[in-house]
Amino acid sequence: MVRKGDGLSAAETTSEIVRAMAATMEENRRHLTKLDSEIGDGDHGNNMHRGFQATLERLEGADPFTPAGVLKAVSMALISKVGGAAGPLYGTAFLRASTALSDKEDVSAEDAAGALEAALGGVKQRGKAEAGDKTLVDALEPAVKAAKETAGSSETGVAEVFRAAAEAAKEGAESTVPLTARRGRASYLGERAAGHQDPGATSTYLLLDATARVLEGSS
Question: Looking at the domain assignment, is residue 36 inside a domain?
């Protein structure tokens, strides 16, 4: 999500971001699966990889004219291809972000922060989770806070918003290590879930970091 520039439309840049997300999920598939095998079903990495490969296929057969159109395509692919809780949660996040951007052809720093906030709202509504429950909310909520604070600064670009969000998400993901889970499969483990980093929070950080890296390269 970015303003037009560097010969690419904002929609094309958003597609580049999605391709980077897909590559990140492929690169980290085993790591995410290992994290999930410790406190979940052991399929998070494979599911996210499969979902983003399906996203790439969907984008190849489409020609979205806006960033929102790209995000909606991601949402549909994740909902249809990602198993477990991750598909509906991430699918809802991308769909809410798409709705927040509406038909904008360019995306400002404030727009980007608003899209992330809408994504968080969708995840919390769908998953009924709050910060501290050892879920992806523990990464996404501080990311949204950082994004909004950064977007409020003068002369801040979208790249800076996502870098701030990614760094906050990284800290949020790491903060899940000592927590006992109150939502999801990990909640069945009770105290045994403590000492392990939540895979959903980790993948949230990785997706935001991939976004920031693409935008930093195009700025």
Answer: yes
